[in-house]
């Protein structure tokens, strides 16, 4: 279960940021080896404060372990032929890092594994970076003798859409029935630098597809927009920014908003700090009544959805209906200049051996 991860305690914030800024697949920096630790050190106090305010760390590890355990229990019932199934969490920037997970997998004598992204929508900067990480660890001899296949995206899976839609409905139910249909549904996803969008990264399209599917499932009862949050640094990022959209809606006389995190499956600083503490507070000062759709966390509908996705994948793979990788993940971004993306894709397409 691959994801970026987050610091479980405030004390782990610096190492998390150092790993993040050292990732050339996410943020290619000149003199990265020197610049990454410097930026991480400078940013640490501010980000530590945010993790302290959301309860002393990121809950992503706890949610991932709950989701993994729930998924594996369902899979054992659904696919007895490949049981027992064991979930391993592998984070890109926080513990448990891929190296530690690889060690556990080796200890357990794992021979068959599915690299299952926990980002619903694919970006080279997120899922792509985690796949490059598996590939590099395998090249370094940490993951020998394992047959791999990949679940690379699932942003329109009906179970995922149903889980999000149910949380949107619960948030909408908090508004007065007389005015509920005037509530704007504002989907918010982590933004991408325009340099990534412009090299042909599929994330913007895939997040849009998720939003469309949720709105179809809700029967278009309310008006909606998709906006983008959490841009970092001075370069151009995909807009419109979530905070500006909230202020703009208030300016246009809108009174009610449901905020929906659509590109991440558990709580993190972007929901608990940025959306709940920063944006919602400011929006309320502009006269908006605002409720956030809960993150998926331990939603049983969501846990069943990831079990369904894995179940179908394992069946189709064993029956020879699909190969180790999807058709879509085989295509590099037309503007990609990262050589590892190419060799990684060839390696996974061979089943990783
Ligand atoms: C689908 C989700 C995400 C995408 C796409 C994404 C792209 C992306 N992010 C950065 C830079 C930073 N991201 C940071 C934190 C962070 N990013 C995501 C998710 C996505 N990022 C999450 C969930 C988090 C927070 C983790 C948590 O536990 O809350 C940070 C660190 C925080 C900070 O310093 O402000 C940076 C930096 C880039 C450059 C990028 C695309 C190229
Ligand atoms: Fe990010
Ligand atoms: Fe790439």
Structural write-up:
The chain is of the alpha/beta class and 353 residues long. The chain has two domains: 59-155 and 300-350, Rossmann fold (3-Layer(aba) Sandwich); 158-292, Rossmann fold, CATH 3.40.50. It is 47% helix and 10% strand. It contains twelve helices and eight strands. The protein has helices at residues 13-21, 32-53, 60-78, 98-107, 127-139, 158-172, 194-197, 203-218, 242-251, 269-285, 300-318, 339-349, and strands at 2-3, 90-91, 112-116, 147-151, 184-190, 224-229, 256-261, 289-292. β3, α5 and β4 (147-151) form a beta-alpha-beta unit. α3 (60-78) packs across α11 (300-318), α6 (158-172) packs across α8 and α6 runs antiparallel to α11. The mean pLDDT is 96. The structure holds the ligand C=CC1=C(C)c2cc3[nH]c(cc4nc(cc5[nH]c(cc1n2)c(C)c5CCC(=O)O)C(CCC(=O)O)=C4C)c(C)c3C=C and fe (ii) ion (2 copies). One fe (ii) ion is lined by residues 124, 128, 332-333, 336, 338, 341. It is a peripheral membrane protein. Catalyzes the ferrous insertion into protoporphyrin IX. It catalyses: heme b + 2 H(+) = protoporphyrin IX + Fe(2+).
Q: What string gives the helices and strands in order?
A: EHHHEHEHEHEHHEHEHEHH
Which structural class do the helices and strands define? alpha/beta
Number of strands: 8
What is the radius of gyration? 20 Å
CATH level 1 class label of the largest domain: Alpha Beta
Total domain count: 2
CATH topology tier name of the largest domain? Rossmann fold
Cofactors and ligands: ligand L6N33NVT, fe (ii) ion
As residue ranges, the low-confidence spans are none
- DSSP summary: helix tally: 12
What summary fits the major beta sheet? 4 strands, parallel
Q: Tell the overall outline.
A: globular
Which CATH architecture of the largest domain is right? 3-Layer(aba) Sandwich
Name the beta content range.
5-15%
Mean pLDDT over the full residue set: 96
Subcellular location: Mitochondrion inner membrane
GO molecular function, one term: ferrochelatase activity
Catalytic activity: heme b + 2 H(+) = protoporphyrin IX + Fe(2+)
Function: Catalyzes the ferrous insertion into protoporphyrin IX.
């Amino acid at each position: 279960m691959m994801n970026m991860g987050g610091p479980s305690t405030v004390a782990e914030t610096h190492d998390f940021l150092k790993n993040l800024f050292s990732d050339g697949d996410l943020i290619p920096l000149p003199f990265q080896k020197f610049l990454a630790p410097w930026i991480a050190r400078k940013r640490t106090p501010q980000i530590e404060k945010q993790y302290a305010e959301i309860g002393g760390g990121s809950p992503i590890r706890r949610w991932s372990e709950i989701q993994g355990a729930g998924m594996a229990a369902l899979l054992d019932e659904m696919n007895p032929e490949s049981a027992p199934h064991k979930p391993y969490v592998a984070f890109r920037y926080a513990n448990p890092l891929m190296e530690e997970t690889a060690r556990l997998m080796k200890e357990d004598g794992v021979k068959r594994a599915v690299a299952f992204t926990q980002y619903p929508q694919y970006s080279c900067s997120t899922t792509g970076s985690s796949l490059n990480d598996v590939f590099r660890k395998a090249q370094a001899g940490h993951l020998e003798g394992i047959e791999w296949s990949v679940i690379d995206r699932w942003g329109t899976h009906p179970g995922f859409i149903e889980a999000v839609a149910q949380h949107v409905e619960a948030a909408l139910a908090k508004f007065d029935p007389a005015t509920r249909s005037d509530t704007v549904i504002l989907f918010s996803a982590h933004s991408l630098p325009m340099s990534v969008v412009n090299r042909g990264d599929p994330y913007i399209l895939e997040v849009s597809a998720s939003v469309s599917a949720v709105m179809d499932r809700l029967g278009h009862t309310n008006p909606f927009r998709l906006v983008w949050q959490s841009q970092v640094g001075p370069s151009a990022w995909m807009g419109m920014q979530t905070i500006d959209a909230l202020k703009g809606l208030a300016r246009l006389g809108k009174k009610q908003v449901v905020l929906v995190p659509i590109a991440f499956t558990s709580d993190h600083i972007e929901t608990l700090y940025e959306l709940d503490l920063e944006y919602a507070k400011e929006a309320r000062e502009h006269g908006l009544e605002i409720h956030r759709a809960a993150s998926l966390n331990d939603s049983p509908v969501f846990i069943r959805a990831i079990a369904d996705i894995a179940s179908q994948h394992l069946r189709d793979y064993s029956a020879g209906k699909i190969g180790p990788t999807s058709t879509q993940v085989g295509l590099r971004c037309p503007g990609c200049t990262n050589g590892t993306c190419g060799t990684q894709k060839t390696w996974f397409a061979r089943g990783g051996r």
